[in-house]
């Protein structure tokens, strides 16, 4: 595939997880992909102590260097740039670098997320028992990251009168994620951010959408279940999961769609996009959209 061979993309938070899967699939479609995050091969991010310990890992997995190399191996051109997406100065320098080196930007994928930095192993608890530091992780180092990158990408895309901003989120038709109010509120804010940006960008022929994957087999999920990508099928509880490449294929399909502006402002589930665009996950399955229990 070379549907995106003329596309310049920037994927934030791409050292691991969904960002890594997205970057690789964009590369497989031929794109030039700027891979950003704080973890480099020689210096992994130091703020994941709790989840790394709970997962039984020695250090946080992945790096922007490794992801960029995978992008290039897949057929694209991966460029690793270390960036702390909470720093306005660093994010500004990043976008200036992209403009200087490429002269344009076609796709921004907002994926930098701080929620894992304060994960304590508790999935469900009343909001009054949750620590306020979760707000800092999910909003100051999550929602704010997306807004900061978007406001610096927007002038470039508006001048071009062409482009797409994708915000990764979680959404199940506005159903409430019981027992995790901070996460539910943060993801709803990201969804609303994508919608609001779409209203202001549409007159300039620029699209903004939110994309919601299902339960992904990220490095942390696999470690938490004491398995890996080669052996996850031996864990029945992971039967409904999807690879991080699945959301990548969804975003690559959107980026290649000349009529993507018709979808602007919407929340799009990866399972629905798989049916619409005719792609599968890496194991050949069409994984249906994730739905909360009781749906």
UniProtKB/TrEMBL annotation:
User: Which Pfam families has this protein been placed in?
Assistant: adh_short_C2 (PF13561)
Stretches that traverse the bilayer: none
Classification via SUPFAM superfamilies = NAD(P)-binding Rossmann-fold domains
The coiled-coil regions, if any, are: none
Identify the domain of life.
Answer: Bacteria
Against PANTHER family, the record matches this protein to: DEHYDROGENASE/REDUCTASE SDR FAMILY MEMBER 1, DEHYDROGENASE_REDUCTASE SDR FAMILY MEMBER 1
Designated name of the protein: SDR family NAD(P)-dependent oxidoreductase
């Amino acid at each position: 595939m070379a549907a995106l061979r003329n596309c310049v993309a920037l994927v934030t938070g791409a050292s691991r997880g969904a960002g890594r899967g997205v970057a690789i699939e964009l590369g497989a479609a031929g794109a030039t992909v700027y891979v950003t995050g704080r973890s480099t091969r020689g210096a992994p991010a130091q703020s994941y102590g709790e989840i790394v310990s709970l997962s039984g890992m020695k250090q946080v997995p992945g790096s922007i260097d490794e992801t960029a190399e995978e992008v290039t191996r897949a057929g694209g051109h991966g460029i690793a740039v270390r960036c702390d997406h909470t720093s306005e100065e660093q994010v500004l320098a990043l976008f200036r670098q992209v403009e200087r080196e490429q002269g344009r930007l076609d796709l921004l994928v907002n994926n930098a997320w701080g929620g894992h930095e304060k994960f304590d192993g508790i999935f469900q608890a009343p909001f009054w028992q949750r620590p306020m530091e979760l707000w800092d992780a999910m909003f100051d180092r999550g929602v704010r990251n997306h807004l900061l990158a978007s406001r610096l990408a927007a002038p470039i895309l508006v001048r071009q009168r062409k482009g797409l901003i994708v915000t990764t989120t979680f959404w199940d038709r506005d159903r409430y994620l019981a027992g995790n109010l901070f996460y539910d509120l943060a993801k709803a804010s990201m969804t609303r951010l994508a919608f609001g940006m779409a209203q202001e960008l549409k007159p300039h022929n620029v699209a903004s959408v939110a994309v919601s994957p299902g339960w992904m087999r990220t490095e942390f999920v696999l470690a938490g279940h004491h398995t890996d990508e080669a052996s996850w099928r031996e864990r029945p509880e992971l039967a409904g999961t999807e690879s991080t490449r699945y959301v990548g294929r969804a975003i690559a399909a959107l980026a290649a769609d000349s009529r993507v502006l018709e979808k602007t402002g919407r929340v799009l589930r990866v399972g629905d996009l798989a049916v619409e665009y005719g792609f599968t996950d890496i194991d050949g399955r069409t994984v249906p959209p994730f739905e909360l229990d009781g749906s």
